[in-house]
Amino acid sequence: MGKYTDIDDSSAYFQTATYSGSNSELAVTNDGNSDLKPDWLWVKQRNGTENHMVVDSTRGVTKYLSTDSQTAEATVTSRVETLDTDGFTLNGASNPVNASGGTYVGWQWKCNNGTTSSNTDGNTTTTVQANQDAGFSIVTYTGTGSGSQTMGHGLGVTPNIVLTKARSGSAAWSFNGNIGPLVYGTNKLKLETTVALTADTNEVKAASSTTFTGGGSGAVNGNGSTYVAYCFAEVQGYSKYGSYVGNGSTSNGVFVYLGFKPAFIITKKTSSTSSWRMYDNKRGAYNLNHQYLKADQSDAEGTNSYGVDFLSNGFKMRNNFSESNYNGETYIFMAFAENPFVTSTGIPTTAR
Fold this sequence. Notes:
Layout: E1 14-20, E2 26-29, E3 40-45, E4 53-56, E5 60-65, E6 74-75, E7 80-84, E8 87-90, H1 95-98, E9 103-109, E10 117-119, E11 126-131, E12 136-142, E13 149-152, E14 161-166, E15 174-177, E16 187-190, E17 198-199, E18 204-207, E19 211-214, H2 218-221, E20 226-232, E21 239-245, E22 255-257, E23 260-269, E24 277-280, E25 289-294, E26 302-310, E27 314-317, E28 330-340
Antiparallel strand pairs: 1-9, 2-8, 3-4, 3-9, 4-5, 5-6, 7-8, 10-11, 11-12, 12-20, 13-19, 14-15, 14-20, 15-16, 16-17, 18-19, 21-28, 22-27, 23-24, 23-28, 24-25, 25-26, 26-27
């Protein structure tokens, strides 16, 4: 029998950090087994209504986007100063992410230490940094407005998800992929809204082991517009992208097998409107994990008496909320590991 996973320490590729703001220069240090210099940093205030903030090492730390907004990329020098060897440093004047009295969470993904290359796999040249081991790449490109523009992504396998955002103009976050009812070239979701799965053949139309194909939509391929795409390919024991059908039970809710103990989960109902719910292993340190944020809203962190259990091999819903476990409703999810269910040497992980 072959190895179950090639990633024994998921903290080398994904970590969550929680911190309190100081309104002065602040270094946030990760506490995982491995040091992690983030290439994609996503910050949200927990006790207030500041917008989500997304920066990455390809576009640079002064260029930020908000997942709860369609607005174009903004240039702000007073938020993130640096992406560090094991965390990140915030500017003293960066109130949206570092206000005195504010509490925050920072989700961090490693890609390729900010090292990019020119990619000519498609019919347009892209700038790519990719981590094939972790199944994650960051792609920037300029649109042509054509109905079939192909962009190289650098993963070496077909991505399950391509999340695209226009940088130079206002446009939706286009969430495309092949997971459950979400199918390239057939339908889409929007990260900044609660809308259900919507028929669409004009955004990310297809994907292969080398490229993804953009239609003529301004969300992914407006003529002369600039874009960033975050591409994700599933890696056994580290990441999982899929779907489930809710059962409406609070005591014996749906169990979703991942093959690892999760560190981070985001879910979205596709069959009708709902927010994108976000859970992690730092804000909810023990089961029942009932502290959530919404990727499409600037709302402060919510807490419910029902939530979700993070288990050694997946997650189990303990609620009947419309946004995560209504009976008969369909949901998609993205999940990243704290530990694989079984390491490459056959050692099982433990439940929380």
